[in-house]
Each structure stands twice: as C-alpha cells, then as structure tokens.
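PT: before anyone asks, these are the final sequences, not the draft ones from last week. 776 residues across everything. Please model them as a single complex and drop the result in this thread when it's through.
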Amino acid sequence: MDDIIAARSQMALSLGFHIVFSCIGMVMPFFMAVSHFYWLKTNNVVYKNVTKAWSKGVAIFFATGAVSGTVLSFELGLLWPEFMKHAGPIFGMPFSLEGTAFFIEAIALGFFLYGWDRFNKWFHWFTGVIVGVSGLASGILVVAANAWMNSPAGFDFVDGKYLNVDPIAAMFNDAWFSQALHMTVAAFVATGFAVAGVHALMILKGQNILFHTKSFTIAAIFGCVAALLQPLSGDISAKDVAKRQPAKLAAMEAHFHTEKSASLIVGGIPDEKNKRVDYAVKLPGFLSFLAHGDFKSEVKGLDSIPEENHPPVAITHYAFQIMVGMGMLMMLVSVLYFTALWKKKHWLTSRWLLKLFVTATPLGFIAVEAGWTVTEVGRQPWIINGIMRTADAVTPMPGIVYSFYIFSGVYISLAIIVIFMLYRQIKMVGKLYDLPAKK
Amino acid sequence: MLYVVIIFLWTAILLYLLLGGADFGAGIIELFTSKKNKSITRKTLYSAIGPIWEANHMWLIIAIVILFVGFPVIYTTMSVNLHIPLTVMLLGIIARGTAFTFRHYDAVVDDMQNLYNPIFAWSSFITPLFLGIIAGSAVSGHIDPNANTFMEAYIFSWLHWFSVAVGLFTVSICGFLASVYLIGETDDEHDRLRFAHKAQFFNIAAVVCGILVFIASLIEHIPLIDWVFGNWVGHIAILSATLSLVWMWYLLYQGKTFLLRPLAGFQVTMILLTTTYRHFPNIVILKNGGYLSLLEHSGQEKTIYALGMALLLGSIFILPALFYLIYSFQKKEEVAH
Ligand code: HDD
Ligand code: HEM
Ligand code: HEM
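LR: through. Structure below.
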C-alpha cells in the first residue's frame, strides 16, 4: 500500500467512524427531549426511564464522537498538510464557529447528564434541547466546510496563489445548502431506523414491552418522517451536483457518453476500460430529468472530461446505487408504518411490521456511509475541486501505512467495545427500569 | 484583531493546561495511588471531573482550530515534523476519553473494569507527556526544514532530552493541579490529607523535573535561562510564583483548603507566561535559526478578522454558560434524589 492510498484510507476510516457517532450525537438529544417532555407532562414514569436509559447510551456515543472528532481535527494536518496550508484560512470559518457550537453542546450535556433533580425541571429539559440544537449546528457547519471542497469559493486562484480570501463567502459556497440539508435529514433517518430497529427487536423478544414500545414509537416516527423527505432532498443534491460537478454525476450514474434524453442506469457493472455498463436496467430520459428537471436535456458524460480528471467510476456508481436503494427501502417501510398509524392500527402490534424494522436497523447508516463515498470518491482526483489534487496534498512523511494499521486497530476495538456496552445497557433495562415505579 | 486571536490562542492553551491538566492529573494520581486507596480515589474523581471533562477537552480543539485557520503554516509545519508525537498523543486522547466514559457508564461492573482502569490511568500519563514533548520540540530548535533523512526529519525533531524533560515536567504539573483540585472535592478528612500529600509529592516532582529541563537546555544550547531570567516580566513572574508557592505549602501544612486552587493556578499561569513571553511572537523555532512567528505567519487579514469575530461572539455565549456549569456543580447542594 503506498502512502497516498494509506492516507486516504485512514481519512476515510476516521470519517466513516466519526459520522456514525456524530449522527447519533445530533439526533438522539431530540428523541430524548420528546420522551423527557412526555415525562414532565404526563408523569408517566416509563418516559422518564426511556429518557434516562437513552441518555446513558448517548453518553457513551458522545465520548466516542468527541474523541474521534478531535482526532480528525489533527488528522487534517497530519495527513494533508499541503491542503490545510492553503485551505485552512479559507474554509476555516465554519470550523471556528463549530468550536462554539461544540462548546455549548459539551456544556449543555454536562447540565443534562448530571443535572437530574438538581435544577428546575424545565431548565433541565431545555439543556437537553440545546444539546440537540448545537449538535445539529455543528453538523451543518462541518458539512459546509466539506461543501467548500466540492465547490470552492471565497478566493481568487491566480498563478497557484490563493488571493483575496473571503471566509464568509467560502462558507456560503454553492454546495453548502444542498449538502447540509441532505446530511441533516440523513442523520435523522439513520439514527431513527437504527434505534427503532433495536427496540423492535426487544419487543419481539417479549422483554419490557411497555418501555420498548414507547421508545420504538418515538424513534420510528422521527426516522420515517425523515425517510419520506430524504429522496426529495436527494433530488435537490443531484441537480446541484449536475451543475457544479458533472464528473461526479457522470461517475455516479456510470454515464460514459454525453447525450440528450440520457437514460438513468440502475444497477449494472461498469466497465471502465470499454466505457460501458453491463447488465443494467435503463430508464430512458430519466437521468436528464434527474439532473436538469427536463427529460430532453443533455447530460455531460465522462467523455467530456479529460481522462486524468476522471473519478473512480465503479466505486462511485455502486455507492450511489446502494444509497438510493436503501433510501427506497426505507421509504417503503415508512409508508407502511404511516398506513399502520392512520388506517390499520392492528398492524402496529403485528410481528411482521416489527420484523421489518429489525431488518431495516442498519440500512440508514449503510446509506450514510455510501452517500459519503459518493461525495468524496466522486470528487477525486481533486481534494479541492478543480484547484488542488489529492496527490499534491498528502504529507511528505513516509510510512503512513503503519499509522493506518494502528488507527484501524483502534477503531475496530472501539467499535467492538461500544457494541458490547450497548448490548449490556439493553440487557440491564429489565433490572433497572422494570420495577414498579418509585418516583 | 490579530492580537485578539493570539490572546485567545494563549488563553485556550492556558485553560487546557489548567483544566485539562487537572483532568489528566486525576488519572496520573490514580497511577500513583496504592491499591487499597484506588477505589476511593476513583469515586472522588468521578464526581469531580465527570460533568466537566468534555468541556475541558474543548480548549484543545479551540487551540487547534485557531492554529489551522489563523496560522496554517505553523499548524502544518508542526503536523509534518511532529507527526509521530502528535499521533501518540491522539491515541492517548482516544484511549483516555473512551476508557473514562466506558468504565463510568458500563451497565455491569465486572472484570471489564480491569481493562478500563489501567488504560485510563496510563493514557492519562502518556497524553500530557507527549503534549509536553510537542511543546518542548516546538521551541527547541530541533525542527529541521532541510532534513534529508527520515530520522532527522521525523524522529530527532522531537526525541531529545529537552523535550522529554518538558514532557515529564508537564506530567508532574498535571498531577500537582489535580491533587490540589481534589483536596477541595472531598469531605473526608483522611482523603483530604492523602491528596495534600499527593500535592506535595507532585510539587517536588515538578521542581525536580524543572531542574532537569534547565539542565537539558544547557546541554542542548537552548537559551531557556535567558528566556526565563533575561527580562523583568520573567523576574516578576518567577518571584511571585515562588512566593505563592511558599504560601501554598504553608496552607497545606495548616490543613487549609482555602485559596489553594487559585494559588496553584497562578503558579502554572506564571510558568506559561515566562516561557512564552520572551520569545513571543515566535512559537516554532527551527534548526536553521529561522522561526515561525504568530505575527508574520498569520493568515490574510480578512480571515483573521472573521476568526477574531467568531471567537469573540463565541465567548459571549460560552463563558457565562461555562461558569454557570462549574458554579452549579461546585455548590455542594444536597442532591434531592
Ligand atoms: C440515510 C441516508 C441517505 C439516504 C436514504 C439518501 N442519501 Fe444521498 N447522501 C447521504 C445520505 C443519504 C449523505 C451521507 O448524507 C450524503 C453524503 C454527502 C452529503 O451531503 O450527504 C449523500 C450524498 C448524496 C449526493 C451527493 C451530494 C454531493 O456530492 O454534494 C446525492 C446526489 C444524493 N445523496 C442523492 C440521493 C438520492 C437521489 C437519494 C434517494 C433516495 C438519496 N440520496 C438517499
Ligand atoms: C460530515 C461530517 C461530520 C459531521 C456531520 C459531524 C458532526 C459532529 C457532531 C454533531 C459532533 C458532536 C456530537 C458528538 O460529540 O457525538 C461532532 C464532534 C466532533 N467533530 Fe465532527 N462531524 C463531521 C466531521 C468532522 C470533521 C471533518 C472534523 C474535523 C476536522 C470534525 C471534528 C469534530 C470534533 C473536534 C468533535 C468533538 C467535539 C466535542 O468534543 O464535542 N468532525 N461532529
Ligand atoms: C463524515 C462523513 C465523511 C465521510 C464518510 C468521508 C469519506 C471520505 C472518503 C471515503 C475519502 C477518501 C476518498 C478517496 O480517496 O477516494 C475521504 C477523503 C477526504 N475527506 Fe471526506 N468524508 C466525510 C466528510 C468530510 C468532511 C466534513 C471533510 C472536511 C471538512 C472531509 C475531508 C476529507 C479530506 C481532506 C479527504 C482526503 C482527500 C481526498 O481524498 O480528497 N471529509 N473522505
């Protein structure tokens, strides 16, 4: 493995790891706020137990999210010093605001986790909401930084120099809105489905039904609303990508040849050498519609882009298919769930619906990882789209492979421990929260 | 605005040293605590640092963000040449943060604790050790931009007596801060005495390590003596720190807890002030005699302006909330459970 591949893999691994924890860190506070609200309103102790049980899980995720995020802020320099030297001052604005958001989040979390029965109950509830709001804010800000890499703005690039830097313009680059919207909704989808799935499993096992049903309902409603919105936001993203990064769109769709009324390719195996896709289903005109909102319009293919600027087609294409596929599946589940809520109440207690949710547990996170792969791999070979190549940004230090191995080991062990701990938390639900309620 | 940003950077580093330092120190104390006292130490430690460790940790992130936004050349030079110690420090941060949380939140208390505990204690030692090594290396003049070999560029940039001595010094400072902090956190007379002893132990350790730092600086021709003693700021700082130290030992002997924390904080502030004041604005000194300066190697004006505004704006939100957090948990109100 050479150094650049190692550096890229390490970056991808660290981000792919962090994103799981940050999604949960952004979304769980809202779930907790809802159950906490019901507890304060109805005095039904199950809601209090749900809030407390969740907050223990969240504390574990928060710590892991915080340390993996800290690692990232160093890794940007450790792995991509040439990039940070120039990009730092330009796209740094969201990061400096993010510092504030994190700080508020950490403070509010201190209040929330350790503040039971110490403060006015609504103040305590409110600190929980603040955790969620500042978490969302930091997610949006960091995605704005990433969007700048896709759609650089806020400076003039003259003879290899970065002049007239304007960090505010850099933050509000063309891609920030579509990406931030899509990411925020994605976090709700992924976390909602994951949490609902776990509680559905416990209901199926017949344990602490009341507790798990309440938790399930909160998570499932959040997740399903978001899952219905996600394709809409994905459509905004796709139109946006078509405008600013035709190479990425072409790679996503394995669209080799520029054409009018281009067909949407579903599935298939891209053959990059012969520039064709085998075994695919083609929907004529739909790609033109997806990209420009018009069945007849022309969509640029990879042939319009110099060979040395092509992103890896196969990975991007597969990742896109996976994301969209997962999105469609979850949309289907959501439709069924809402039908159950409104029209077919008896479905709600049926095993097949719960089983469906159990099966869907990982789908959201798979889609998130796939979506980021589309965004990041689809930007290659650029680290700053059209300005700087990834290969020119990497650290001169040799032996990054070892660092990659070490971090892989660490992340794998952490993941195992976190899963193990979560398992134990859930097992303890019966002991801790099933007793007749003493207030 | 540049000066605003620099003041924030310095303050973030100071607060990380003070608050994060006390936090690390708690783990170091655990490492230096005999078996039979370990579990009681742990208990005090949870209640003391549980609510605030995440917030403490943020100062480091603020410092890093200021560096990479405002002073990208300094950030990248350090990232390249000090890659290895930075990586070790990061591994320490991961291990520590997760072990602390895991052992606290694990639903079942069993043998897994035997895994978390040593990881927590040892990483609490290693992380500040490497933080010190990094700080020491930055000013030691060992970073060589023209290095040709791997060893010169990536190993000898940080592996030398001076920076190792600074690392040990940092560790003892952390232990010292934590013991002083914990004295005020416990209601048990016996415990208080133990922490007072620990404070004395780490104080002596800090003085010894400090002497080692000076010896190392002489061996490696680092003008530390001149930085510290060559100007009036240094004189005043050293004098007042020494006086406050005497005062503090007196209080410790008297068994008083009043004023201990401010005094300890004051001493550490003075140490940071003397060691940074004289060679301000240069925070990285290179082997070829060159240096990286906060004034000359900053980002463009608009960036610095935006960064300064973001920091000022942020503090308006953060500081009151942070004080309220610390205040609320200081108030030893009875928990109505
Ligand atoms: C639950 C997760 C999830 C689901 C169901 C979907 N996506 Fe997505 N997608 C993401 C999670 C995600 C993401 C991980 O959040 C990404 C990565 C970068 C970003 O901004 O969002 C992303 C990126 C992303 C991009 C690239 C954006 C860019 O590079 O700027 C496009 C074009 C789409 N998505 C389109 C879709 C469409 C048409 C979907 C239809 C169902 C869809 N996504 C479902
Ligand atoms: C799309 C990608 C990302 C999203 C959505 C995201 C979001 C978040 C969120 C919501 C948190 C706080 C929640 C928690 O602690 O669990 C967090 C933590 C953190 N993230 Fe990320 N992040 C992303 C990528 C990054 C990157 C690239 C960096 C660094 C350059 C980074 C740096 C951090 C840091 C330093 C923390 C710790 C803050 C703390 O101690 O609370 N993140 N992230
Ligand atoms: C959390 C979600 C993210 C994931 C899962 C992710 C994933 C990836 C992947 C797979 C790569 C490797 C691409 C390749 O080399 O083919 C990569 C590269 C990179 N990403 Fe992201 N990314 C995320 C968000 C971000 C954010 C928010 C930033 C910065 C603000 C960022 C900065 C980078 C950098 C600097 C590289 C290396 C250069 C490059 O390969 O272009 N990423 N990421």
